[in-house]
């Protein structure tokens, strides 16, 4: 197998199509070469090689060294210099590049090939000794840290110590001789600390770096990132070995990053940042605050540092041309890295840029309007899960803003929370349900857990492309970066602001859309669902086949869901309607009654409440279908638990506390999830189901009158496994329906159906469909019972399963297609055999998960039902599944 792919001089062995094999970076470097763009020559070692490396117990596969050597001498020919040559040494960058971009997660080594000898050649050739020795010391530092595992801080200490001794303030003040002293101290420290000298042999350096990049695929940060973003470990990373170009070659050199459109708003304008006389990672690392690429961007940011447009007009013009070409070529917004070495522009990377949901919508709509992509492609460009970001609140423009600082609007949306200063504290606080804002000088990949736990992220340093900004945008978490006016006193855990000090636990609000930091909490506005969002949704609705309903029982949820485009209610969990203060007492009275008459008396009190609940839901849904499920949970959930609660409730109900306690005891179950719930309850106490049915039909009559739209209630029986269970309950429902129809003189059409949420029900679906007019897949319970994994206890060990690679994703979040999915598929087929027009839907959590929605489309469900905030996600995912 070919393991090494060459690129340079206007041609490449690979292309953008080879993304899986060459990784995103390698494939696009090849593509840019093929387009004739200025790309430093190099080679890409394939992702398969990474997998082979791991299979062999972290050994390079046979033949790899020869293949790399051969390719490297061709790179040398193209660059006009050879690796390891004492006169004209070729220096290399070694970077990772997986199929999916994983910003900052894996390792990079720059300036590789420098040693005591080649550094002199570099000094001679460049005519700049300071530059050569500065590059050498950077390389030692990076290499020792990334490849040899030396502590980064130890180098900083030596550097600071020498600078202090010499009375220098800036790195740029250090002379070539002084760098040599520092280099000597570095080398000595490495030898002392690590017990091996810094390698002088360039080939040894190269293989060390390649091994380190492969190894970084399995470092803790990368593993966490993969888990969060569902990237399989089996993809592996490619390694890109490329001739160095130097952005730190004095003041005619620079390095930068750019987006062809604004990644935060989507505005169609070149957007980017650069640093003069700087190298690679300096821009993204957020250590120096970069300058704006364009003049317009400079003016907007109020910076007095010149733009690239002004300071290097020729290189800028060429770059602008290239960005346009690349965007048209890829037909998508590009994220680019470039370096200018002594006035000459080099392209180091292009890829489809990460963007906020808002930007994604704007870009997709504008590209479709411009005819660059079709409306269907536009729909396909939006990550359904990302819509969540748009459904986030923003700060009410009318609210008073107590501004205590400001930075860059790095990731939109507003968030309020208590200040924490470390990622550990953020994780800890969110565990206990507190909402926090993570405040850091800058973030690094180690902060990923804390960033996830926080409601918002505030950094003191760093630009729009800093780690914090990029990661926060990806997560949809509001972020303000580079708030330079603020200071952190980490020892005292204080945040020093324009308006005095704040401490840990004090509440602040971030406006990730304006970059403002506000004191306290601020009134928020609900999101705007028209504009680009509306356009995409319109296209999505035209493309999809499945309906999207919502799981809702409160009027507020039902209204929200309709505003998000829900086409009915797929699951109204009636048990959620009984937990309110004034209702639970009647519920308790019912449970405590020791005979049917007592129960009926208590139920009579609940009837009007249920009737008005359902009337309101029917009215809000205005003729759209509404599925109401009969009471599902075990009764003891409604009873008090602690002795204090028991005493209190007994007092309220006027019953003996001991009697109540013994009833609680009686109702206790070892396995409530597998206990006396669902239709079992309706079979033991049919009067409960009868009361609910009466409430539903009376409400249907009322709502039909008030709205003028006929209501066709769908009554759903939970937790059925035997057709006989359904027959029993259905008989009660039908009897009550007849009564109400007679009493009211109104004809009502209605459906009686069942949840399919137990394996037996799926297996016996053909028989059950004889009685059931619809099925709704309760994939929460179906997952629980198919795996035999308690849905309430799964989190503790499924996490371990994911870490150990036993499962790729949580089956309670995304459907287990092979197991649970197979049962769903079987039940749909069997159900349709008996009743060809049976209505089929899903109402487990999976109904709002894009991957599961794709599966639902494949098996041909009629609708999915999900929580209100997931409705737009489901509409889009259903469209993508149908396209
Ligand atoms: C289910 O089991 O998937 C379901 C929707 O019901 P619940 O979550 O209420 O048990
Ligand atoms: Mg269930």
Automatic annotation (TrEMBL):
Residue ranges of every copy of the PEP-utilising enzyme C-terminal domain listed in the record: 530-881
Residue ranges annotated for the PEP-utilising enzyme mobile domain, each copy included: 435-515
UniProt keyword terms in alphabetical order: ATP-binding, Nucleotide-binding, Pyruvate, Transferase
Domain spans labelled Pyruvate phosphate dikinase AMP/ATP-binding: 20-56, 59-294, 316-367
Reaction equation(s) it catalyzes: pyruvate + phosphate + ATP = phosphoenolpyruvate + AMP + diphosphate + H(+)
One MF term in the entry's GO annotations: pyruvate, phosphate dikinase activity
Entry keyword Nucleotide-binding: yes
Matching InterPro entries: PEP-util_enz_mobile_dom, PEP_util_AS, PEP_util_C, PEP_util_CS, PPDK_AMP/ATP-bd, Pyruvate_phosphate_dikinase
The organism's place on the tree of life at top rank: Bacteria
Pfam families in UniProt: PEP-utilizers, PEP-utilizers_C, PPDK_N
EC number: 2.7.9.1
Swiss-Prot/TrEMBL cofactor(s): Mg(2+)
Enzyme class: transferase
Entry-linked NCBIfam families: PRK05878.1 (NF004531), pyru_phos_dikin (TIGR01828)
PANTHER family hit by this protein: PHOSPHOENOLPYRUVATE DIKINASE-RELATED (PTHR22931), PYRUVATE, PHOSPHATE DIKINASE 1, CHLOROPLASTIC (PTHR22931:SF9)
Function: Catalyzes the reversible phosphorylation of pyruvate and phosphate.
Family (UniProt): Belongs to the PEP-utilizing enzyme family.
Stated name of the protein: Pyruvate, phosphate dikinase
Native species: Pseudohoeflea coraliihabitans
Organism lineage string: Bacteria, Pseudomonadati, Pseudomonadota, Alphaproteobacteria, Hyphomicrobiales
């Amino acid at each position: 197998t070919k393991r090494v792919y060459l690129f340079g001089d206007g041609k490449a062995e690979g292309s953008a199509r080879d993304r899986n094999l060459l990784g995103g970076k390698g494939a696009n470097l090849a593509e840019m070469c093929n387009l004739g763009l200025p790309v430093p020559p190099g080679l890409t070692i394939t992702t398969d090689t990474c997998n082979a490396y791991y299979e062999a117990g972290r050994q390079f596969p046979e033949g790899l060294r020869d293949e790399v050597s051969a390719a490297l001498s061709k790179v040398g020919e193209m660059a006009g210099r050879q690796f390891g040559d004492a006169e004209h040494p070729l220096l290399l960058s070694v970077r990772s590049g997986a199929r999916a971009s994983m910003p900052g997660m894996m390792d990079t080594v720059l300036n590789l090939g420098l040693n005591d000898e080649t550094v002199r050649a570099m000094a001679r050739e460049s005519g700049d000794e300071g530059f050569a020795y500065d590059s050498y010391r950077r390389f030692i530092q990076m290499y020792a840290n990334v490849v040899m595992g030396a502590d980064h801080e130890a180098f900083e200490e030596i550097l600071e110590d020498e600078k202090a001794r010499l009375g220098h303030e800036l790195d740029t003040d250090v002379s070539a001789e002084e760098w040599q002293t520092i280099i000597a101290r570095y080398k000595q420290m490495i030898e002392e600390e690590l017990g091996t000298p810094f390698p002088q042999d360039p080939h040894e350096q190269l293989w060390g770096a390649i091994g380190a990049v492969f190894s970084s695929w399995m470092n803790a940060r990368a593993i966490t990132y993969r888990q969060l973003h569902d990237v399989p470990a089996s993809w592996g990373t490619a390694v890109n070995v490329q001739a160095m170009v130097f952005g730190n070659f004095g003041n005619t050199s620079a390095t930068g990053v750019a987006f062809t459109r604004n990644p935060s708003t989507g505005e169609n304008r070149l957007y980017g940042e650069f640093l003069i006389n700087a190298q690679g990672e300096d821009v993204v690392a957020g250590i120096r605050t970069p300058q704006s690429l364009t003049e317009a961007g400079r003016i907007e940011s109020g910076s007095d540092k010149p733009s690239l447009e002004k300071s290097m007009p020729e290189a800028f013009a060429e770059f602008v041309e290239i960005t346009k070409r690349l965007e048209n070529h890829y037909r998508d917004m590009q994220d680019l890295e470039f370096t200018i070495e002594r006035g000459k522009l080099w392209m180091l990377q292009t890829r489809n840029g990460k963007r906020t949901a808002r930007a994604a919508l704007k870009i997709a709509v504008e590209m479709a309007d411009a005819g660059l992509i079709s409306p269907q492609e536009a729909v396909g460009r939006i990550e359904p899960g990302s819509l969540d970001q748009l459904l986030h609140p923003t700060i009410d423009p009318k609210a008073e803003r107590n501004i205590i600082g400001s930075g860059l609007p790095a990731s939109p949306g507003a968030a309020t929370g208590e200040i924490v200063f470390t990622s550990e504290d953020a994780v800890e606080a969110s565990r206990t349900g507190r909402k926090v804002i993570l405040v850091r000088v800058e973030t690094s990949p180690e902060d990923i857990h804390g960033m996830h736990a926080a409601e918002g992220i505030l950094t003191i340093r760093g630009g729009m492309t800093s780690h914090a900004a990029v990661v926060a945008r990806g997560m949809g978490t509001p972020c303000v970066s580079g708030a330079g006016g603020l200071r952190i006193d980490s020892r005292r855990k204080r945040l020093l602001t324009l308006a005095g000090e704040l401490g840990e636990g004090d509440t602040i609000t971030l406006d990730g859309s304006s970059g403002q930091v506000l004191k306290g909490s601020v009134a928020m506005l609900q999101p705007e669902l028209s504009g680009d969002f509306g356009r995409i949704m319109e296209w999505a609705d035209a493309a999809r086949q499945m309906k999207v309903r919502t799981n809702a029982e409160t009027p507020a949820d039902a209204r929200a869901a309709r505003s998000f485009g829900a086409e009915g209610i797929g699951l109204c969990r009636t048990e959620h309607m009984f937990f309110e203060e004034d209702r639970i007492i009647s519920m308790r009275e019912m449970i405590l009654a020791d005979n049917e008459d007592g129960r009926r008396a208590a139920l009579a009190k609940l009837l009007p409440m249920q009737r008005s609940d359902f009337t309101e839901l029917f009215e809000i849904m205005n003729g759209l279908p509404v599925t109401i499920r009969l009471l599902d949970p075990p009764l003891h959930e409604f009873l008090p638990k602690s002795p204090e609660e028991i005493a209190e409730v007994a007092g309220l109900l006027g019953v003996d506390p001991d009697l109540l306690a013994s009833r609680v005891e009686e109702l206790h179950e070892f396995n409530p999830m597998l206990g006396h719930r669902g239709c079992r309850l309706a079979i033991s106490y049919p009067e409960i189901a009868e009361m609910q049915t009466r409430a539903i039909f009376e409400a249907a009559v009322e709502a039909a009158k008030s709205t003028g739209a006929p209501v066709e209630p769908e009554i759903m029986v939970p937790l059925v496994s035997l057709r006989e269970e359904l027959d029993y309950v259905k008989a009660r429902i039908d009897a009550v329906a007849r009564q109400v129809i007679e009493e009211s003189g109104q004809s009502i059409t209605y459906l009686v159906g069942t949840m399919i949420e137990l394996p037996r029900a799926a297996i016996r679906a053909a028989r059950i469909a004889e009685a059931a007019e619809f099925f709704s897949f309760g994939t929460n319970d179906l997952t629980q019972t198919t795996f035999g994994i308690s849905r309430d206890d799964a989190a503790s060990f499924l996490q371990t399963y994911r870490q150990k690679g036993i499962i790729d994703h949580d089956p309670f979040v995304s459907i287990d297609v092979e197991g649970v999915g197979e049962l769903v598929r079987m039940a749909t087929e069997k159900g349709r055999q008996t009743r060809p027009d049976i209505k089929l839907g899903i109402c487990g959590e999976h109904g709002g998960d894009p991957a599961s929605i794709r599966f639902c489309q494949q098996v041909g469900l009629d609708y999915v039902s999900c929580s209100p905030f997931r409705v737009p996600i489901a509409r889009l995912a259903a469209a993508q599944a149908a396209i």
